[in-house]
Protein 1
Amino acid sequence: MADENIPNGKNGKVGLVDRVKEDIQALKVDIPAKAKEQIEGLKDPTKTQVYTSIFRHKHDDTPRNRALGVLSNVFLHLHPAKINRDAVRYSYTWGMGGITFFLFIILTYTGVLLMFYYHPSKVQAFRDVLYLEHDVPFGKILRNMHRWAAHLMVIGVWLHMFRVFLTGSYKKPREFNWNIGVLLLVFTLLLSFTGYLLPDDQLGFWAVTVGTNMARATPLLGHEGPFGSMLGMTPYNDVRFGLLGGSIVDANALLRSYIWHCIGIPIVASILMIVHFWRVRKDGGISGPAPVMLEAEADKPRRGPKAAGE
Amino acid sequence: MDWRQLWEICSAPDNVPIVGLIPLLAFYIYLAWRQAHANDQLIEQLEGDAALAKTHHRKTWPFKPGWQKEVHVWPFLLRIEFLAAIIVTIILMVWSITLNAPLEEPANPNLTMNPAKAPWYFLGLQEMLVYFDPWIAGVVMPTMIIIGLMVIPYIDTNPLGSGYYTWKQRKFSIGTFLFGFIILWIAMIIIGTFIRGPGWQWFWPGQTWDHNRLIYEVNRDLPDIFGITSNMAKALFGAVVVGGYYLLGGFLVYSLFRRYMGKDFKRMSLLQFGITQFLLLSMVALPLKMALRLLWHIKYVWITPWFNV
């Protein structure tokens, strides 16, 4: 049939070639239009779906957005939206709690990187440190940063405790959080101490030997401590043996030190930190700078029914 | 004066934090003292003028009517945190570039380091080993320090001075803490780091560490001075001396509290006061024992077959 040769195709339908032609025509119009739209859209990236899915509020400088910037961010939402205007005074806070936490983050970061190059075994450990110092790119600065951040963290914790004491911030209602803080202080020292052995050099070895030798003398539980031998304590079953995994500082002590240092204590300390920060908020935020209280007001509560005269 | 020796001790990488800690502490004590002084002056002014106390702003920082009482965390707090993070990072970077972490020879149990020192933050405890047996210095004392710190909020019944620096309202608690932190903890660390040399002997700063130095020192026990020889009598004598110290000391603490801190004493329960007495006397026992040892060469006060104090 003649119809079959008509380019428009059979049965009056449009042929493939014409469809392509039509699409090309449409393409010339559609794509520039879309491209224009796209470029227009890129001028304001904050309206894109990707952006709005990540940041769930606008960025205009309004009080509402300032608050949302803190509250809708998982990392910042430990802060309240607003704080007392004096509470940001550095001369009052010293910022040592925050700095300590920041150093903990640095230590976690550098520590994880160090773990890639370190084997906690008697044969490898010291060589790994030498390898880090001399062959690993940036290995030396990595180890240095870990070491000095650890020392700074100890100093930071002490100064934080000092400030909290001097401002009486452990007083009601923050008694419990002070206790969490004391535990965190102890765990900071233990973190540093367990890390001391890991290079497996003379410095760490003798420091840990001196440190753990004291455990021999634990009353009741150490073989040289008061009443220890009466309870059947020997160098092979006392508390020091449990700490070192042996009667001398050796391979097991290195492994135990490593696991406490990298896993055990960081987990416990992290949990305590969560409680510590949470309680700061729950106990009414940072303690001050509070209005001074006079001697005559000492035994009257400032707020609540008693202060109102009931 | 051996400057080289002094430099070697001060520049040992792990001693640098303590060298840095000293001016840092001095600065922060000054900062706290300055604010405490300003607050104390304000308190004095307001105590003397009841009418003013009702209206006056209770802080040393200015506040004018119409000012917002609160500020947004974003940006007023976060910018400080951000700056602090950057500054700490820069300090850490510079420190890490300029000073290498120490690395000695491989661990060798057959070659004892002399002096063998604990990490610097534990040197206070190691210094205590000179004056006390390890079960006290290494176990009982650290435990008591931790417990003592933890009970502070529960035995300090003074409601004043919460949330601001002050000296006059909290003389006793701040004085005690400064004594414990600065004298007993930091000063002991400084002694352990800078003064103690080979054989844990006392070397003044600048004195050469002589590994062959011998000290002819005869330490006696307190019962020996009184001519007590039998073990039973020594044990009894020590118990009386130590018990007497706590009893008489406890009475002294009581009479001082009653006289000079009447209000605090009134607020305290028997348990609170008893714990305060015990912790305070145990804390003071450390420098007393140090004095006995350093000045009169007395080693033990209480000698029993099981333990010595």
Protein 2
Amino acid sequence: MSASVTNRADLRAFSAGMIALAVILAIAVLGMTIGAVTLSVSQVVDGLAGGKSAFIVTQYRAPRVVISILAGASFGMAGVFLQGALRNPLASPDVVGITKCAGLGAFLAGLVSPPALAIWSIPAGVVAGAVVGAMMLLTIGRSFGGGIAALALVGVAIGLFGQALMQYVMVLFPTRADQSMIWLAGSVYGSTGAKVMALSLWLVLCLPLVFIAGLRLDAGGFGDETLISLGILPGRLRGGLITVSVLLTAGAVASVGSMGFLGLLAPHAARLLVGARARHLLPVSALIGALTLSAADLIGRVIALPNEIPAGIVAAVIGGPYLIFLLIKEAGRHD
Amino acid sequence: MTEASHSRLSSKDLSLGYATTKILEHVDIAIPDGKITAMIGANGSGKSTLLKTLGRILQPIDGTVLLDGRAIAGLPSRDIARTLALLPQSPVSPDGLTVRQLCRFGRHPHKGMLTRTTRHDEEIVEQALAATGLSDLTERPLDRLSGGQRQRAWIAMALAQETPILLLDEPTTYLDIAHQLEVLNLLRDLNRTQGRTIVMVVHDLNHAAQYADHIVAVANGGIHAAGRPVDLLTPDLIRTVFDVDAMVIPHPADGTPLCLPLSIDF
């Protein structure tokens, strides 16, 4: 009997995952055919293999598609970890200020380093900003007892502080502000093979941590008293989950800019589809994040031709109403 | 230390409270092994704080909690979790868990989170579910249980932890009379058949009188009195601890003390 129930939930998650994967692949193919030069599917395949359209496909379109998928999946998982750590469905890397700090780090790094080094200095700035933000969050949060409410409120305060600092710096250096505006909105424009390599490498390094934290994610849903009774240190558990969320966010922000909003949207959609157990929620949220970002990029590229709308803006425009719809549906379930 | 043989869980000169305000001072308490201990006291007297401190949820301002003669503050949390489990008053669980999935978490101190559940673990879980009468509800999500069933599911998780000592913070709150008795009877069964030491905070004096072997009355910043219900529960004690006038008569059914409060003039 236990097996049948578990299997039903597993099957549901598996089907949801497979459908999401199929849609992602379809979007990926479309993303590689559509553009200033329209290619057929066979031309794309030929291009990937090094044929006539190889330049457009491998240098321009494929990296963009792959980055959308990887970054979207990272945001989707980062959101699940943060929501699990803070036991709050409204938590996202955006809300607790981590993306803001990452953005500030990137902007400052871009200012101080020569343009030739920007490809390295900006990601380094992102990671540094995210880590400093997370360390502030955990240290200040701990001084208030390390409770969930304290962590969430401190996070909001850090986010506001990071944003204010960023605006101040942008006013000081208006010539650099344009580029950072696009970056702040989030865009996969200008993705290169090098960026794909960098993000893939980062994710491979994060993978063992994601796996370990994933096994501990469900326990985050217990109250601290129950955790202590079970011999689990709540501060260490929540700190660990937050750390993994920060690492995933940092990697994604470094490649596509600030799109923490995805970290809120993807887990909610996934929870509605497959429930709240980590083993189902985490992979499905990753896939939905990937799907949403690649769909947003595709739409942003074609909707206002010949101009492009950054994927982050498209995702927010579509995702905002969708999130409200999800929240209404979720609220309805509890009645 | 003579009491060590009779009491695995005790405290020495414990002071509890917040920063500068002490709620309880100089608490020396020994929880009798294999017995049911009830902690009684007025709201805000510190009985729950004392229970949480014994269960190392809260740190004392001063003094030590001793588990098997060793200071609990110096023991690894996992090791303590194999000896002592605490069920909070309103426990929060992860969303979407079934009864069995909740119960499995009780195995954590024995196996950690990274290893898979073994056959032995599953047997213990099965026994815990059977002991709490939940064998037919194992696949039911927690949010679709009645209050009494949910409380039994949490007790099942604590049982799966296989701890000789079980602390419960007001296990009968929010339950109607039938479910209160259901939980209390279950705890008594567990004590009588499995020999588990049970410590519970209870509000109802008559529950304490009927179900406990040992009562600890918390009042006026310390342990006011401790002893057998029949010796302890007197009109004097009830007046001192709760500021209520009451009569105490033998229970017609089993002879335990029955407290009948007299009306209060406000």
Protein 3
Amino acid sequence: MVKAIINSIPVEVAENTTILDAASTVGVKIPNLCKHPDLRASAACGLCVVKVKGSPKMPRACCTPVQEGMDIITHDAEIVSVRKTVVELMLSAHPNECTVCGRNANCEFRRTLSDFGIREEIFDKISPQLPIDATTGVIVLDPSKCIKCGRCVVVCQEVQNVWALSFLERGIKTRISPAGDINLADSPCVRCGQCSAHCPTGAIIEKDDTDKVWAALQNPKKHCVVQIAPAVRVTLGEHFGFEPGTNLSKKIYTALRRMGFKAVFDTNFGADLTIMEEASEFVERFVHGKSALPLITTCCPSWVDFMEKFHPDMIEHFSSAKSPHEMLGVMAKTYYAGKKGFSASDVEVVSIMPCTAKKYETHRSKEMNASGYQDVDTVLTTRELSRMIRQAGIDFANLPDEECDHILGEYTGAGTIFGATGGVMEAALRTAAYFVTKENLPKVDFENVRGLKGVKETTVTIAGKEIRIAVAHGLANVEYVINKIREAKKAGAPLPYHFVEVMACPGGCIAGGGQPYGVTDELRAKRAKGLYAEDQGLPRRCSHDNPYIQQLYKEFLDKPLSDKSHHLLHTTYTARPLYQR
Amino acid sequence: MDIDTMDVEQIRKDVDEICKPWEGRPGNLIMILHEIQNRYSYVPRRISFEVAKHLSIPLARIYEVITFYNYFKLTPPGKHIVSVCMGTACYLKGAPTLVEAMGNHLGIKPGETTPDKNFYLQVVRCLGCCGLAPVITVGQKVYSGVKPEQVPAILAEYK
Amino acid sequence: MNKEELKKIKEETLARKKKTWIRVGMATCGIAAGAQDTYFALREELKKHKLTVDIRKCGCVGKCSAEPLVEVAMEGMPTVFYHHLTKDKVPQLVETHFLKKTVWHNQTISLQDPHQLRIVLRNCGIVDPDNIKDYIALGGYAALARVLEMKPEDVIDQVKKSGLRGRGGAGFPTGLKWELTRKVPADQKYIICNGDEGDPGAYMDRGVLEGDPHAVIEGMMIAGYAIGANKGFFYIRAEYPLAVERIEKAIKQCLSNKLLGQNIMGSSFSFDIEVRLGAGAFVCGEETALIASIEGKRGYPHPRPPYPAVKGLWDKPTCINNVETLANLPPILTNGAAWFAGIGHEKSKGTKVFAVTGKVKQSGLVEVPMGTTIRDIVFNIAGGAANNKKVKAVQTGGPSGGVIPEQFFDTPVSYENLQNLGSIMGSGGMIVMDEDDSMVDITKFYLGFCVDESCGKCAPCRIGGTQMLRILNRITAGEGTLADLDKLRSISQAMQKASLCGLGQTAPNPVVSTLRYFEHEYRALIKEPAPKQ
């Protein structure tokens, strides 16, 4: 611990605590635009300068550790004046397009301008005019709006290890771009959208598909159905003043129904279906030795894209099961449509997802058209849904609760925990155990796979057999797991794992690239808690216990891994080049 | 040598050769880029791709470095590289007028190559010959105390 | 190699020394002026006359305006320097000096200068930079031999007592820097020689690297021994190919003479050196950016702490010393701390090398004891302004420095004095400006430099510099307003206080200092009438 003084108030903080964090303990939130709690300090914006008595310089609070005896001043006339000039300088290099910007009302830079009471532009406008890159169809890169905080680059390179985004050039010409100024779509980008979730301005935003959905809702020829992902129910509320982690699925169903969707489904049902297939696959490999172990989960499209680009040698380990919303999409256009007397082309499927990459997943391979048509027509992120709710003028906070629709709605606790890292693994283990032993585990909680540790390794015993498990989230953490597998394979050594879960985004889908802004580990924990609480409280917590899933197999699919299941619910993978150009 | 039509195998061979002396030495990227530019006069994208594979580093890292440092070029410069020193001494003694004269004579701006690919014009920061200001170089040859009216004659040596 | 072998080489080399010889100054500046042609012409001409004369090349003696410079010694004749000795003058030189045995008086130049004291440049222009034996004959590597018999702590103590401060700009005490690095426990430490001399208009380091590479290597080894590093890096600008070539050659000679490698001179000290090139980025002169560059990354500065002494190159404790700093070490360890501390002024000890350029009669490298006045340097050494113009000011410290008007020229040069005048010592660039030069224009030049060289990482420097440059462009175009002067001041303050690294923090210095002394020149360019009182 070190003792110091901040604004005349004595503080005692752990060694290596930054001045920024130390100041928060005395109620001072030092203004800054580049430091994000998820990321190391890039020290780029220069707003967080403070004074330390005895030094003529103004150190940056974000990256200066408190030292014993420091006497720190976080605000005085000179500090505020320096900060204000820096803000004015940044404004001079930023276009005045706030009214037509994707971050309009929740832009960190705009809020800072407002805080500093900037009433006129005193410097020449020197904002660059750089081309907008919307080639991914998922995220939109507008480098002219970039304030060079570096968050997206750090996320892309250090957290995700993708290196699609980088800084090119230097000085005033510095800009974010893939290597050699190619389009993002031609780069290694896996569309995880973490760049957009961390960007303080409108330089990187999700592609907006709300118009497309409004049009579909009004199309009399379409029976428009919708599904919401597990993670959306505990995050959407943040946009409407709810405590993070509050489970609002029933209000969301109501809102969607009032917006005009003919049927409101829940991706949790799809998750239960995924587990039926994936757990069966695991049992096939683990018990019956059919094809290679470990089995690696594939619910996360960014992870799939990452693997196809960076680790194609792992393809044989990938579960061929589609992700939950794709499974639900194809069921909506086949099983549900059939029951309702529609043809597949009559049904329009919209998925509300925490994720930007899901927008890409809908057309990533031909298997995503298993119904004969694109199985999921449109994906909206949580952020887009909140805008649609506001556009409709729906008073979300005061909506009554409603239930979701049969026959693709009811779900178990296993489905809902898909939204947090470790959730797919836990859900799969519950059902795999049943498939092997034909009875449910006395305790279905696997605490060891929960939580925010980057790589979680554990062993579980089912029917006297040890299953070695790894759960990784944040793509940079995957490297460790993959390398361990690769080395063991090369050496002919025993496999380090039998079953691996990977989610691209740190924390899993609850902190996906399409989720409300401002995520921190604290927020991740709260959101995850919301999901685990729901799981805890549900009467059925194992996918195979879902009566509607049982009915689906009985009436339509026959059994997990049947020919029909394979045709509709499974996909294939292929090696892809890192760079198209 | 046209990199675009070069055989992949040849490119790999070149890259192996360039990287070899730097194998296993941390922080070797910039030195390898120097070698590449010495050989090809710029850093071609096809070569960067191979270097990324060879060193197991992301291509983006290579581009971050190339575009940060003034020394590296992403497009082939002309046959003769004309550098006008813009150190302080040269500046005070009229280097800006030399840039202008060069530009006018060649019809290009600094950082550009003439259409016949004969000259590439660049402004450099101090060649360290301040006593001889203003200084220009064409290739390796240094011209000192240059006046704008001498520009046509100097360039004529390289037609 | 051991002490005895070193002594033997020294004696043998001295014994072989001929009484008749020619030295041609062949640093970059000499070669640019045609020294290479002179060198070959001399060889041809002497051969023609069947004269066997030992022709050697050497580094820069510092009189750049007189290049090509040729020093001639002949038995029974005074040793003289011939200036501007281009190849066309070679036949007459051989004819006059060697055949007629008379001095060609019109062409000689005296390099004796009572104002100068050559410690750093002691061998420049004398030693053959490509010949390690030449260096040993002049006492080279004897300091290292002594040091290897001392305890590292005692070496640090000597350097602390000498009062040597970093010659790269900020003037941090060298001994203290070493001590900080030594004290950090680590399995690996590094010493880096900062040869990224980016200040436009300064070439002290080039002069030393090209003229006396072994002195820098010996200094680096002493530093390495003192801090406990067994690996050194030279980081040299790619724009200095000759300096790189000479250092690389010198390293090879050290290796073959076992002055580098395992157990040097029979001691437990092992050391090796690698050369890494810059690639055109001024910011890489900043220590943390330099480290990033050696690591093969963009030259982005890092926040400090952690300081390089604690966490530097590849996170290992690292000491970075400038070329001139290192070249000072062998004489300090040979002659003792007291000798060095006896030279200089107040808290600035020893000498300083300046590259005096601009509108002076004789531009070149000069080395003076700290405390010499600016007036002595500009007028008595460099001869004052050419063309009977009046000297208006000097600029020191390059893009991070400021201007010093003529009325302050009697100030003795020291780190503190220059800082009090609103400039800095910097690495040693000293640009002389005469009455024709516009202070606003020169400010614009420096600012343009900083804008080009800003790494772009942090907003105050990246945008602030660009905006200041726009304002200066407006003012010099006659479109400035008085409000622009306030804007310059507020941006300067923001940049000085909120920039991350030294480059950004000091980039406004040329503006601040010219506004301090020459605001009238700004106002003269602003046509807007002054507000009524």
Protein 4
Amino acid sequence: MTAVATALPAPAARSRHLAGTGALLRLALRRDRVMIPAWVLVLGLVVASMGSSFEALYDTAAERARLAASMNANGSMRALYGPVFSDSVGGLVSWRMAGYGALLAAVMSLLIVVRHTREEEETGRQELLSAAMVGRRAPLTAALLTALIANAAVAVLIAGGLAKSGRPAAGSLALGLAIGCAGMLFAGLAAITAQLTESARMAKGLTGAALGLAFALRAAGDAADAGSTSPLTWISPIGWSENLRAYADERWWILLLFLAATTLAVTASYALTARRDIGMSFLPARPGPAVAQRSLSGPFGLAWRLQRTTLLGWTLGFLCAGGIFGGIAQGAADMVGGNRQTREIVERMGGAQGLTDAFLATMAGMLGMIAAIYATGAVLRLRSEETGDRAEPVLAGAVGRLRWAGSHLAIAYAGTVVIMAFGGLALGLSYGISVHDVGGQLGPVLAAALSQVPAIWTLTGLTVLLFGLLPKATTAAWALVGGCLAIGWIGPSLKFPQWAMDLSPFGHLPKLPGADATAAPFVWLLALSGLFAAVGLVGVRRRDIG
Amino acid sequence: MTTAISSAPAIRVDALHKSFGRTHALDGLDLSIEAGEVHGFLGPNGAGKSTTIRVLLGLLRADGGSARLLGKDPWHDAVELHRRIAYVPGDVTLWRNLSGGEVIDLYGRLRGGLDAARRTELLERFELDPTKKGRTYSKGNRQKVALVAAFASDVDLLILDEPTSGLDPLMEEVFQSCVAEERDRGRTVLLSSHVLSEVEALCDRVSIIRRGQTVESGSLGELRHLTRTSVVAELTGTPGAPPAVAGGGLAALPGVHGLDVQGHRVKLQVDTDKLDAVLRSLGTIGVRSLISTPPTLEELFLRHYQDDAPAEEAIAR
């Protein structure tokens, strides 16, 4: 809490500005009583349990050393997971989870902070609270404290869990702090964007973009340099998390780096919040057109208008990600060709044949799983339109429910194809350029990216099903997406049983490029997706709206 | 435009039932609205007004009973009906990044279409700036966006759910003149409102509902007839003097309540349809002056609202 305290002026003013923080904090914890424990438990237990999994999979020191050496020798694998700093079991856990754990803690933190700051203002609830005995800085402070509690819990769970399963205490603590501190830094960044933007959606999007950039910088830096000394790695907070080097002569001073950056971000957010009015932002609202364009004449025009910015953001993000990953794919060929162990590991990561192909297939799969986040969000716009009372006047017009729902679904389904196509194009182009064979590589890589679409649509169909039949439980769609991400990301290296891998629609796709593709899985997934969506739409037609 | 439907009632609801879980929002509600009339729809908070309106709009599916709008089924023929209906909710939510003008046009296009000249005129009368974004409008201005869209739309039926909440008195006046114009054009208006002066000024007939049931329905005159008139009279003799018409005699008349005799002065309340006998009785004593006050609208509604207050349950819709 040093961070918060330094940002505040004289003690007398402090108590006035912070009046009501305790009450708001209790309110936030009460509202998040399901969300925060779920995040903390899943994130904490996944990391903490990884020690015993690695111990079981690589039970001799020699095996672990081979794994570490081959991973460090390969630029592509370094880009994915970062370098291995120690071939102890703890070192492998840190290698696998320091970066991704930091990423997940950052997502959790940005959701918490935006939810209790900008979202409260946007919905007008903050106005009511601020009219009571609530100081000007209390809402932001309460949101940051909520994030601090969640991140502290994550750090404690990780450190305690790993230490309990036999890993060295100092390294366990370092890994817990590396993940928790990254979470708090992004809580601070979210606190800034929440002041700058007027919509919670935009604040989340901007912070998410910063997080994506941090991850990409780390990936690019690690691809370029085996020792993690690249400046690209060092400008990325996720690079700091991995460079804390848990279980490998911990560099505790990096915690000071986190502290300084978090203090800076939090101070900036307090300075911004002191200079603006409740509900307002720094970007003044510009006047809009007095009459609507011809395109804004029906439910589809409206849905497009509401969703186009989000789609544009995702398309740009996928272009960048595809470009970066395509550029480092060539490094997979650096892999020591004769190393059976390495080959086995890469194949376990989801590849089938040819290490570069395997890498590209892994990338296409990763883009696919991330695109599922876009698709789910796009479908759930329907629900937020409904609960926000904006669907009601549209449906009170001459608009059938299917047309209304179909408009948003069309954007969700087509948008998925669009972002996967652009991601695949960038991946294929950038890989093709790096191996001087654009003509030969672009087609297969693009096809690999597009082959993910049926699996994404299956999740989309399930979301429509929830929206139609169990509208109050639509958030469960996020759990489905999270489950598929978990199965796809950590399932292969932890050797999940086949039935568990089969639960994810992505597990049924052939590993393109490189593998033999048959039509059957695509047909099945498309049929399932269509069936789910159809049943969901029947539900939409029959149920009460609102 | 309205000639085709003028024979049948514009809205006819019989024994409508709707529950949300264990809450019975509508419990056998009846409603009948003739084409071309402005109908007031009244009831305490949570009585089921908005639920009824949402059933009429086909947003909610009734559990029982029947509802017909312009001769059609509000659930099955929703799209076809909505071309001829304009709806204004009590709490208008706009898309934050769409301007008011865009929303007005969008709503109009989603209905039968928009009269451009009328749109311009209404924007002026309501003093609404159509270039502002949804997030920057105040509550009253958001309400105006929906009202302009409704009044400029080419429709047969307007469903207004507490449409003037948040409007200032000047705008309230503009609103009333707009509704009057709609009536003059032969359109039907269902007006749910708590502003009694508004109801009194605009409505041909009213329905009062309570706990999901219709408790009173008719013209204001008819409803007044069912309530009590207060009478204050100064008499030439004392009511007590001739034994035949003593205070006891007045009290014995049917429909007399709260009798208060002080010397020559008599105060009482009487059921309006029993007024005649009381006046006759007073006449035999001799009347020096007489004030008879018909029930105010407030009294009319409070009678229905008040006994509801303790049992009032918050039915969210």
